[in-house]
Amino acid sequence: MTDRTSLESELAAFMGEYERANNSHKISRVMPFIAEDAVYWFSDGSHRGIEEIRSAIEKTFTKILDEVYEIRDLEWPVVTADVAVCRYRFTWSGVVDGEQRSGQGRGTNLIVQQEGGWRMLHEHLSS
Question: Which helix or strand (DSSP H or E) is residue 10 part of?
Answer without folding.
Answer: helix 4-23
